[in-house]
Amino acid sequence: MKKLNDDRKLLRGAFPKTVQELKSTGNVDGAYGERRRPTQFFAIAPHDDLVDHFKVYTTYGRYYAIKYAHLPHIVLESGELMILLHDLQILVKGRNLDVIEEHLSANQLLMLKPSPSGKDDGLSQVYISQIIVTGSIHELMEDLKNEEA
After folding, report:
1. Mean pLDDT of the region 40-58
2. How far is the C-alpha of 131 from the C-alpha of 134, rounded, in Å?
3. In this predicted model, which residue has the larger pLDDT, 11 or 21?
4. How far apart are CA 39 and CA 124, in angstroms?
5. Is this prediction's pTM over 0.90?
């Protein structure tokens, strides 16, 4: 029985002892309902890595892989980021989108994703409320679907 007690002493130092200790260290997880983690709305490559494409996820279940070589214009204006390609236009609405524009201009953005709830909880540095994708590529996709039918 003594060995079991010795093992418990070793484990005791490896884990926080009480919820109060968790609160004092700031490691309160969602399991306790005290603090939620911010949602990730974008991803960037490591500091010096350049990437050749990024993905845009929409709320309606479609995603687009966009090559940086096809990216002629990026416009940031009053809470809206417009990504203009030859046959596709992407409108990103949200808060602090200048961070995304910086990484997009530096070819370091990997992914964009809107908030699943559509509500800003204020925990994230950047918030994306909506991504709207329009353009002639949608007409081409519909034509392909009609040809298959």
Report:
1. 86
2. 10
3. 21
4. 7
5. no
Exposed/middle/buried for 81, CB within 10 Å: 0-12, 13-18, 19+?
buried
Buried b / exposed e over 133-142, threshold 16 CB at 10 Å, is beeeeeeeee
| List of residues 6+ apart from 48 with CB closer than 8 A | none
Q: How confident is the model at residue 24 (pLDDT cuts 50, 70, 90)?
A: low
Q: Where are the domains of the chain?
A: 1-35, 37-148
- Name the band, by pLDDT with cuts 50, 70 and 90, for residue 96: very high
